[in-house]
Amino acid sequence: MRIRIRDIEFYYNSTKILDGITLEVGEGENLYIIGPNGAGKTTLLKVIARVLEPLKGVVYIDGKDYRLYNPRELAKMISYVDPHVDRSIPSTVYHFLLTARYPHQKSLQIVESEDDVVAIDRVAKAFGIDHLLDRRLDQLSSGELQRVVIARAFVQEPEIVLLDEPSAFLDIRYRMEVLEYVKRFISSSNRVAIVAIHDLYLASLYADRIAVLSNGRIVAVGTPEEVFSSRVIEDVYGVKIELIQINGRYIPIPVETR
Ligand SMILES: Nc1ncnc2c1ncn2[C@@H]1O[C@H](COP(=O)(O)OP(=O)(O)OP(=O)(O)O)[C@@H](O)[C@H]1O
């Protein structure tokens, strides 16, 4: 699976939000998107998920314009994880996870298949939510709910995972566990992950490449080392950065605002 994003322009009303976005994500790659508040990260993920229609530009999935896939094919292929889940949905965790299997189910299927049960069981264990399957969504803590919502994406077994700020409510162990899982799942297959995140440290740990978005434009793309050792982070965020090296990784530490 490969994604090529070509010259995407997106407007809200008459305001240009994405301005000529061109990016490629290769097989088995974890691409992280960073950038200041309002830079356009969520908008870009929604365009790639086909939740939003760009005014100009095309997204190609495996060389094919994504508008040419039928909705069911696309639903099976792409999972977009919106951080703002409606926890008032009257559903148990199990049934919420099961809804991710719809694209895999046969049209007259009324009960879950063995494959559905196996997928839910495997992912629930990996995300440490197997003890929560009978709980209702409104009975979960914010971090538990977030793990459930991210787990749901993997129950779908998508080729392309789009994660919007996956770490916000998670404690440090779960941040690492969730992103390690994503990295393993993607790297060990020919799948693709695009992760929008504010935490530069987590990006330095888990990104294969990082794209920096600022005012709707990609201003840098490269390995964590390339991106963090350039001046681009200081310029884009307006903060002074010290770079430290631990275990061969380059980790940016913001030390003061400029
Ligand atoms: N529904 C909308 N209608 C109009 N403008 C919008 C809408 N949603 C977002 N915007 C604007 O689009 C721009 C990009 O928003 P977006 O949410 O994509 O940024 P972001 O990089 O994800 O930001 P953050 O880091 O704050 O989550 C912002 O200026 C925002 O105010």
UniProtKB/TrEMBL annotation:
Q: What is this protein called?
A: ABC transporter related
Please give the superkingdom of this protein's source.
Archaea
InterPro entries reported for this sequence: AAA+_ATPase, ABC_transporter-like_ATP-bd, ABC_transporter-like_CS, P-loop_NTPase
Q: Which UniProt keywords apply?
A: ATP-binding, Nucleotide-binding, Translocase, Transport
- What phylogenetic lineage does the species belong to? Archaea, Thermoproteota, Thermoprotei, Desulfurococcales, Desulfurococcaceae
Q: Which SMART domains match?
A: AAA
Annotated organism of origin: Ignisphaera aggregans (strain DSM 17230 / JCM 13409 / AQ1.S1)
Q: Tell me a Gene Ontology molecular-function term this record carries.
A: ATP binding
> What residue stretches are annotated with the ABC transporter domain?
3-240
